[in-house]
Here is the input.
Amino acid sequence: MSITIEYLPTGMLEVTCSILINDETKEAVVIDGGGNENEIFQILQKHDAKLTTLLFTHGHFDHIGGAAALAERAGVDNIEIIMHKEDEYLWTNAKEQAGRFQIPLDMNQLKPTRWIEDEDTLTVAGIRLETLYTPGHSPGSCCFYLREEGILFSGDVIFQGSIGRTDLWKGNFETLISSIRNKILTLPKETKIIPGHGPATSVASEASSNPFLNDESY
Here is the structure.
């Protein structure tokens, strides 16, 4: 199966949105659509693709902020919305989250149609994604591993030379470090990492040079 992947920054905090298109069925998955629905649909139209799934690495407002607009454009009854069950609280309180940063947000009473409750293997739009449950940045943070392409969509768990913050809504530093070491650094070294913000990196690069992962005190 051939997969086309495009990326663009979305929303006021420039969340990296990943658009995965099954070239055979022309179905598409949007991972962390934080906004910019017009630009996302322009990409879909360019590839003659239909959005069938919204997949979220976690429930912070900047990542889920585009969900209502995207679902409305795609047709709410025709779209699957997936996130880990442990971040249901964050989804429910997305407006209050955004309010802390003086950012308006309206979710229009939208709710996920499916909760990930363990390390599911997802088949969405005909694309197989392995779920790595990686709490710490939030209780329900997950990474999605596209093994065939050697790509990990890491959300805010890990960044180039850094890690996700743990001072927001039930974050935990020790849990985050454990998640990264046990779930991400055990992947093949050549795995490309697409973080939720900023440039791409790799397992090899972060294993060798990320200061948060090379401090023996952690």
